[in-house]
Every structure is written in structure tokens, then in C-alpha cells.
Amino acid sequence: MKKIKLTLAVQIVIGLILGVIVGAIFYGNPTLVVVLKPMGDVFLRLIKMIVVPIVFCSLVVGVAGVGDGKEVGKIGIKTIVYFEVITTIAIFLGLIIGNVVHPGTGIDMHSLVKTSISSYAGSAATAKTHGLIDTIVNIVPTNIMESLGKGDMLPIIFFSVMFGLGIGAVGEKGKPVLHFFEGAAQSMFWVTNQIMKVAPIGVFGLIGITVSKFGLSALIPLGKLAITVYGAMILFVIVVLGLVAKMVHINIFSFIKLLKDELILAFSTASSETVLPRIMQKMEKFGCPKAIASFVIPTGYSFNLDGSTLYEAIAALFIAQLYGIHLPLLTQINLVIVLAITSKGIAGVPGVSFVVLMATLGSVGIPVEGLAFIAGIDRILDMARTAVNVVGNSLACVVVSKWEHQYNAKKGKEYVEKLKEVAVSSL
Q: Which of 211, 133, 168, 143 is nearest to 63 (CA)?
């Protein structure tokens, strides 16, 4: 009898389903949280343990391989321009959908459960005074060891690029250093593959806690918002990212299928960090140069949060409609500008979408207290926006690679064929 081999994606889905079932059965039981929390926490800590070393080593190797400061600078400018265009489209789409669907209209505020948002207050206060100029200044680290310890991605990226350029500039003397980082990067990818083996257990714990805390019944009064957000995310991926993919001769559905393992994991954990190492590795195998994959994807985690900005626009209108506040066109345009700047200014902060909203709602006359009504299901919404962020950043890597005429189509096709063979053999 042939032994059935379950793929990682199938194992994660099983963990997800079991987590939902267990969470629903033991809804409101604090003992379940005590039992399951360590499972989710250990998995997330394992992922955070490897993210910084992988980004640092891969970026140093990639940039040292390019060796040309002008070439790296050109890639950086094109990447940031692309990110700004796509995230602005996401915000506008969110506002259009929010104005058409009116998710907050007709909902009785008394039927909604209020959740404390005090834990986000400190980060929001920082965000109000942390604009685009501050972000640019803070890209340059004063102490790289401190940045590595905190996991501040932008300073790490900046130092990695400079260090990689330095290794490339010194020629033969830099070869031993380059070989060291090449070995370190490969070793960390091996560690990543080992950590992924416990992903289903981590997903089971994280989902079980989420469902047991708010219960499935909490979705009923906020169902309109949840359906609107998920519908908007699907529309954005199929239409906007679909058109972008078509422009670079890629089918968006085939691309999503390629990323299915990472998308299921990102969706289940509501954390894009969990898949960052695998996305970098997969895009390189798909035909993107190491230098571009190592730069675009980590940078995108700070500057290209498509799903998050789309959600923020819808959530802002939802709260305004909940309070019966009409936002004129000029006010909504102002909201677009503020969201576009603020979302970059505090990139990397935990619960970033929530913090951005707290920092910006007041500037357009929307009560910040309204966020308390959606805080309870924010994780459910976070799952969708995290998955969209992953698709957006992965596609950005391909777009920039093709824009630079460095995409290896033959390598990408061979990798897809190889994945198909593995899928068939596992049946």
C-alpha cells in the first residue's frame, strides 16, 4: 500500500480547521488559551529568529554580486516608485468600495462589542509625529547591532546594501567575506525548512486562541464589514494585481497557485513575517535575481502593504458611516494623502494597520473611539490583508526583475514544472 504524503499546504489547512473546531468548542474557556498560546508563540518566535539573519545575509550576497552602486540605486528607485503607485491605487479602491457598499450604514452600534484599544495608544501617538521625513532619516542606523537586535528592517536593509557594495568594491579581498555570507544564507534557508515542519502546530494554536476569544458569533454584527473587506481584497488581487501580472506576461491565478503554501501560512498566522524567508527563496527559484529578490521583498514589507492600505481606507469609511459622518470628496482625498504617508512612517510596528488608523482618523474628523468596535475581529481582517501583502510583494519582485530585464523566464518555467512533478508524485 502506497504511503500518503501530505504537502505542507495540506498540513497547514488541517491545522487551521482543527484550530477553528477546538476554538469553537471551547469558546470562552481561558484554559484553552493557556494550553494553545505556547504553540503559536514558539512558532512565531522561531520565524522571527531567522528573518533578520536571512535578510541580512541574502542582501549582502545579492548586492555584492551586482557590485555596481548605480545599478543598485536604479533598482531601489524603480522599486519605491512601483510601491507608491500600487499602494495609492489600493487606497483609492478602498475608498470607492467603501462609498459604494456603505458597510457601516444601518448597523446598530449598541449591538457591537467594544474592545479596548489602549494597547495601541502609545504607538499611535508616536505615529502622529512620525512622518515621511522621519522615516527617511531613520533608514540610516546609528548602531547596526541595535537595529539587528530590534529587527528594524529598513536600517538593516540600508546597512546590508552599503556593506554588500563594500565587499564588491574591494575585489579579491572581499571574496572570503562573500563566501562566508553565502554559506550563512544557505544554512539559514535550511533552518527555515526545518521550522516549517512545525508550522501546522503553530497555526493550530494561533487559530484556536483567536476563535476561542471572540467566538464565531462576533462576526454576525460585523459581517458586512468582513464581507466588504474580503471582497475588496479579492477584487484588488484579481483586477489590479491581475492587470499588473498580465503586463509582465504572468497569469495571476497561476502565480497565486505557485504561492499557495505561503499564502495559507500567512493567512492562518496573520503574519507576513512567517513567509518572508520562503518567499525570497521561491522568487529566486522562479527566475528573479538574488539581488532583486533580497532587496524588493524585505523593502516591500515596509513600503508595499497593499492589503493593509486597502483595509485602512475601508475601515476609516466604515467608522465614519457608523457615526453618521459624511466625508466630502476633498476630505477623502486628504485621507488618501495622510494614509499614504503615515503607513510608511510606522512600518514594522505590530498591529500596523490599527496604529495607522488611530493616528490618522482624527485628522479627518472621524472619532478614534470607533476603532474599539472593530478591534475584536481585527485578526480575522488581518488574515486577509496579510495574504494580499504577500501576493503584492511577491509580484513586485517579478515586476522589478522584468523592468530591469534580469528575469530568467527559462529558470522560472523549469521551477514551475518541477513543482508540478512533485505535486503529482505526492498523490
A: 168
Q: Extract the C-alpha cell encoding 135.
A: 522615516
* CB burial readout 276-306, b (16+ within 10 A) else e: bbbbbbbbbbbbbbbbbbbbbbbbbbbbbbb
Placement of cell 544557505 in the chain: 186
Give the rounded distance of the alpha carbon of 54 from its chain centre: 17
CA dihedral sign of residues 6, 9, 13, 16? positive
- One DSSP character per residue, 324-365 reads T----HHHHHHHHHHHHHHHHHTTT-TTHHHHHHHHHGGGGT
Are 86 and 236 contacting, i.e. CB atoms less than 8 angstroms apart?
Answer: no
Pick the CATH number of 8-425 from 3.40.395.10, 3.40.30.10, 1.10.3860.10, 3.60.21.10: 1.10.3860.10
Query: Are 224 and 77 within 8 A, CB to CB?
Result: no
Q: Indicate the DSSP class of residue 103.
A: T
Q: 2 is written with which cell numbers? A: 502506497
Rounded to whole angstroms, what are the CA distances from 292 to 42, 52, 63, 239? 31, 17, 9, 25
Picking from 413, 352, 410, the residue whose alpha carbon sits closest to that of residue 381 is: 352
pLDDT digits (tens, 9 = 90+) for 111-164: 565 665 554 444 445 545 555 566 678 788 899 999 888 877 778 888 988 998
Count the Cβ atoms, other than its own, within 10 Å of residue 260: 15
Q: Spell out the domain ranges in the chain.
A: 8-425
| Cβ–Cβ under 8 Å, residues 228 and 41 | no
Distances (CA, A) of 92 to 22, 182, 201: 39, 42, 38
Measured CA distances, 397 to 163, 241, 283, 394, 402 (Å): 22, 13, 7, 5, 9
Radius of gyration of the chain (CA): 22
Amino acid at 133: I
Report yes or no: 47 and 262 within 8 Å, Cβ to Cβ. Answer: no
Cell numbers 532583486 correspond to: 292
Question: Per residue in 275-284, pLDDT tens?
Answer: 888 899 999 9
Which has the closest alpha carbon to 42: 190, 264, 198, 271?
A: 198
Burial class (CB in 10 A: 0-12, 13-18, 19+), 126: middle
Enter the C-alpha cell of residue 253: 491565478
Residue 44, pLDDT > 70, answer yes
Q: Which cell numbers in the block locate residue 8?
A: 505542507
DSSP for 198-260 reads GHHHHHHHHHHHHHHHH-GGGGTTTHHHHHHHHHHHHHIIIIIIHHHHHHTT--HHHHHHHTH
